[in-house]
Amino acid sequence: MSKINLTRRSVLQTGAATGAGLALPTYLSAASHSGFTNAPTGDTVTLGFNVPQTGPYADEGADELRAYKLAVDHLNGGGDGGLMNTFSSKALQGNGILGKKVEFVTGDTQTKSDAARASARSMIEKDGAVMITGGSSSGVAVAVQALCQEAGIIFMAGLTHSNDTTGKDKKANGFRHFFNSYMSGAALAPILADNYGKDRKAYHLTADYNWGYTTEEAVRTSTEAMGWETVAAVKTPLTQTDFSSYIAPVLQSGADVLVLNHYGGNMVNSLTNAVQFGLREKQVNGKNFEIIVPLYSRLMAKGAGANVKGIFGSANWHWSLQDEGSKAFVKSFGTKYGFPPSQAAHTTYVQTLLYADAVERAGSFNPCAVGEALSDFQFDGMGNGPTLYRGADHQCFKDVLVVKGKENPTSEFDLLEIVEITPTSQVTYDASIFGGELGACNPGA
Amino acid sequence: MEAIILQVLNGLDKGSAYALIALGLTLIFGTLGVVNFAHGALFMIGAFCAVTLSRIISISRTIIDDSQTDFLGNPLKVDVPYVYDWFGQATGDVIIDWAVPLSILFAIPIMVAIGVAIERGLIKHFYKRPHADQILVTFGLAIVLQEIIKYFYGANPIPTPAPDAFRGSFDFGAAFGFDPNVIIYPYWRLVYFSFAAVIIASVFAFLQFTTFGMVVRAGMADRETVQLLGINIDRRFTLMFGMAAAVAGLAGVMYTPINSPNYHMGMDFLVLSFVVVVVGGMGSLPGAVLAGFLLGILESFASMREVLTILPGLNQIIIYLVAIIILLTRPRGLMGRKGVMED
After folding, report:
1. What is the pTM of this model?
2. Could B157 and A278 be called an inter-chain contact, meaning their C-beta atoms sit closer than 8 Å?
3. ipTM of the complex in this document
4. In CATH, which of 3.30.70, 1.10.3470, 2.60.200, 3.30.160 is domain B2-46+100-329?
């Protein structure tokens, strides 16, 4: 009978050898085209565009899909090349991705987590999509990101603004270009202090779901830090359409600012109701009553019509930016579709190019190699100034726009004006403050 | 006290919409015996009548303004409404501004036509089928109608403002001896409430004081006997369906300045309106109106911050909670009649 002597040193040596042995295939596969989910084998590669094609955000989804099609066109060498001409990385040559022609499949998220996961799963399992991207909701983004992590697929998030997407729910296979609630608060607060003073009483109406909570927290923290007082924060059901019973008590509370932590139809209705109640004509505490919408979207501003005039908010990007990247994208998109792109279109287009560029630089479609290429990647020329894809949480850090509803719009697209381009340094935060763990990259098969 | 007055006022306009939709639902159920789940869609189509007329009035010719550029740097194309050419800019602006009230005249014939077409084309084939079949087919119709609207108008809400004369709010507090700025109520919501009251009174007067209405009421009470008297009651009931569609449509037209219309707005009201009908009593027109206002006001009270602090989420269940209590204590609803939907 043999006797095994276990010592601390031998256990460590064996563990290290086993670990290295297990890691070797991953390392090797990272440099090859096999050993990961949906490794492209022919002369084409398939991307999965998962956007809301039905439901309340269908118009936003349609704009995302237009941008994706434009990106695919440019990647395959069509059109004027768009942002490929201004992108600081020159890895993309207009010959597809790694020489493979880019094809795409689409799914309908319906802005429902379960439907979004089902369509993403179908695109991965049936259509062989090597990357999933899109969406117009943080709930959908978090759900699909988790699915992609399990499946060993890269997820390039679309329009998702909750801190959680790259905070407590972050995943190694997920990447977000769009800004978040924290950044909105950090960018807005100084502008609000400049315009409305530091002695204000704020009343928050907050959509009763994940994004609403993080946005309220971000705006409260930022505004309270500069001296504002929060007199009340009331949660409103996501299904609410008439906000009159929530708005009527605002003036009784002694508040002189109403913060609407709402998006989409909620924002359109709550803002319309607040303006109907004449809040903006009222004087409270000797000051003009003001309304703030932390996250603006041009498509939503269109729904609210003239009610957005003079109201501050924040945005990830706007077509009126005058940097070379933005001008190139607006020209490309506008020439093809006849109207300027929304910020949802911009972020999804950029995400597609960033993914393709990362694959080219990694020399592989392996999600772990792509993730490595994207992590801590610094780039410019994509419309937001110098940008960092931070490796610690896979969140992009770039300038944030503070915008205001335009008083005299010249067209149906000219609804917002840029008030301030807040520099990256002002919206940067420690990656650990929102908790969560990236975990390890999953290459899948 | 101020908070109570305020929530009563808030409940009145919400209750007006519930009452108008529930009134139409009850008219259809009372005359044709059909449970019409497409009624919310008719409310939505009414709202889009206002959107459509607003667009028709604003049809424009395009001129090039070389002094300005568009987003691509090309000379700006400026739309000049034809009503400016025909009536001058000042009058044209007034016509465009009053698009929503003008839509009432536009919506009535359209909604009656749509109602009659739905009844003749679809509903009549389901008169003798179980209520479950009626619910399925009308719910399917509602989805088809809202998808058609989404196809043509998109998914985003479309702003359809009230005339400038009705912008802003009335300060009840200042007018009735309370603190100013505390009890305020938008002018258009007052208009909506008044409009709803007129429509409801008109429907009751029509049924009560006209020969047509008398025959319809007789038909509702005993259809076979009325037919034996040689009266074509089916034709009158078809017109009642058209009238119910018009009531729902007008409720939708006037609601557009309160909330920007979108393709889904009918569904938002549908389930609540059915609860209103059940609470009021199936087939009872006064019950529908009473329950509409009652539940609108209760919902408004349940949304008060003070209430939500003690009972979070109460505003989302209050209507259903009240419905359960009323149905447990009065199974036929507040003003329901014996024998209705009890076979």
Report:
1. 0.84
2. no
3. 0.81
4. 1.10.3470
